[in-house]
Specification:
Low-confidence stretches: 1-47
Shape: elongated
Largest sheet: 11 strands, mixed
Number of domains: 4
Number of strands: 37
Radius of gyration: 37 Å
CATH architecture of the largest domain: Sandwich
């Protein structure tokens, strides 16, 4: 887990490869075994034997109703294991197991709040009683509504970098627990810090982060008076460590400017074999992932349906590809800016100089104007894949305006244009669009002149042939009459 210097809830046992997955587990009835001297204040009169090692599987943070197994391991020559829970008068005992190895397990088949707490292991032999093990704090989750988990500043981290995970809630939790998903289910706990807003939160430093492992986390909230009874888990947060491999391409099926109420879908594609894509919004905390669609012609792609467009959809997006179910992600795609139109009530006007019909090579200016104070104007062409042009506004003759120059124009500039206004404080929220303006560009290049000349020559030839045909028909008719 790198440099995460927090109080850890799990003290990992020895190499678990020797633990058989089919060992049958039973819980003792809690009765004292003969010949053992017990102290109800401390649980056991501890001797000088080395202390036990204790750990829990699948981990120390267990959902309500799930199975958890507590493992204890000592040294050779002991006779009995005992497991103690703080503030519980009756210990659990288990004779030395018949299986190979000097360890035993105690199973809780249905985890509840009564099972949560601090546990210790001891082992007993003819030489006496061992020191108690380090504590194992067993936590049950699912008692309260889930908090939120986010990465500061963003969940995209360069290899070797650090990030802070923020767990927060309005529930007034006094403690937060962060778990790292994976084989060892590592967990850490921090006391919460109240904020001026009324929210309580804890900040967990994580790093250095590398692409060798998966970095997926959840967090839980707990009250101070019941520190081992915690909330439902947050949604999984995965840190993304981009690599150096080829970047994918991010597209919007609806174009870069969308209207409120539309359905927005982004598409990430790559010509390098990817099994998963991830989408990231700059300044956002969510990092949705999607499996690829069936690759076609060597192109892998995935769609990200973002639902009905609202103001929150405006922003800058990038996507990443992951290869062969590994932890390696690609370099980020080029940024895609999604702008939401209709969040400023008025709409600007759009005009063109010298006019909507021009010849190729002329100088053309599109003028976008608004009477409302606006500091930015955008010009968009229908069907264009390029992002809209953006200019700062100028205040002239009681109008806010921007002049978009196209000099000299070509036939490629022809098409339908609209303009929008916005504020620099919210650059992804736009006004209503202007009325459409169609620009027609007549292409008078040499090639076009030649083609026009040829067309004219064809028309002349056709005219001559038609004239001769009519003349011959008239002459034939006159001869018939004679």
């Amino acid at each position: 887990m790198g440099n995460l210097r927090l109080r850890q809830l799990q003290w990992t046992g020895p190499d678990r490869k020797g633990i058989s997955s089919d060992i049958r587990v039973q819980i003792s009835d809690g009765k004292s075994l003969p010949g053992l001297s017990l102290d109800q204040r401390t649980g056991v009169q501890a001797g000088t034997l080395p202390k036990h090692i204790i750990w829990a599987e699948p981990g120390p943070v267990i959902p309500y109703g799930n199975l958890v197994t507590i493992w204890c391991q000592g040294t050779q020559g002991f006779k009995v294991y005992s497991l103690y829970k703080d503030k519980s008068p009756a210990p659990w005992y288990k004779p030395k197991p018949l299986e190979p190895g000097e360890k035993a397990n105690f199973s809780i088949t249905h985890m509840t709040e009564h099972d949560a707490g601090i546990y210790h292991c001891y082992y007993h032999s003819t030489a006496g009683v061992s020191e108690r093990s380090d504590p194992l704090e067993l936590v049950v989750t699912g008692a309260y509504s889930k908090p939120s988990l986010s990465a500061l500043p963003i969940p995209v981290v360069t290899s070797g970098g650090n990030v802070t995970l923020q767990c927060g809630s309005w529930e007034g939790f006094g403690r937060f627990i962060l778990t790292k998903e994976g084989d060892h289910r590592l967990s850490w706990a921090l006391d919460s810090q109240p904020q001026a807003s009324g929210q309580s939160q804890a900040l967990f430093p994580v790093g250095p982060v590398t692409a060798i492992h998966r970095w997926t986390f959840r967090c839980y909230g707990c009250y101070r008076d019941r520190p081992q009874v915690c909330s439902h888990p947050t949604d999984i947060l995965e840190l993304l460590v981009p690599g150096e491999s080829g970047k994918p391409t991010l597209l919007s099926q609806q174009g870069p400017i969308v209207a409120s109420g539309q359905n927005l879908t982004l598409q990430c594609r790559s010509d390098v074999g990817c099994d998963r894509f991830a989408l990231h919004k700059e300044g956002g905390q969510d990092l949705p992932q999607s499996l690829v669609l069936q690759p076609q012609a060597g192109l892998s792609q995935a769609h990200f349906p973002l639902g009905t467009v609202s103001s929150s959809h405006g922003g800058r997006y990038r996507c990443y590809g992951r290869y062969n179910l590994s932890s390696e992600w690609s370099a980020p795609s080029d940024p895609l800016d999604i702008m939401v139109a209709g969040h400023l009530p008025d709409k600007p006007s759009l005009s063109v100089k010298p006019g909507p019909r021009v010849a190729s090579g002329e100088n053309v200016t599109l003028l976008c104007q608004s009477q409302s104070p606006r500091d930015t104007f955008l010009l968009s062409k229908e069907g264009a894949a390029d992002p809209p042009l953006r200019l700062r506004s100028e205040h002239r003759a009681q109008q806010y305006q921007a002049e978009f120059s196209m000099s000299p124009v070509t036939s490629a500039h022809g098409g339908t244009y609209r303009c929008y206004s916005s504020h620099s404080s919210s650059p992804f929220l736009l006004s209503l669009p202007s009325e459409p303006l169609e620009l027609l560009v007549a292409d008078y290049t040499v090639g076009n002149l030649i083609r026009m000349g040829m067309a004219g020559l064809v028309l002349v030839v056709l005219g001559v042939l038609l004239f001769e045909a009519q003349h011959n028909q008239r002459r034939t008719h006159d001869e018939d009459r004679g």
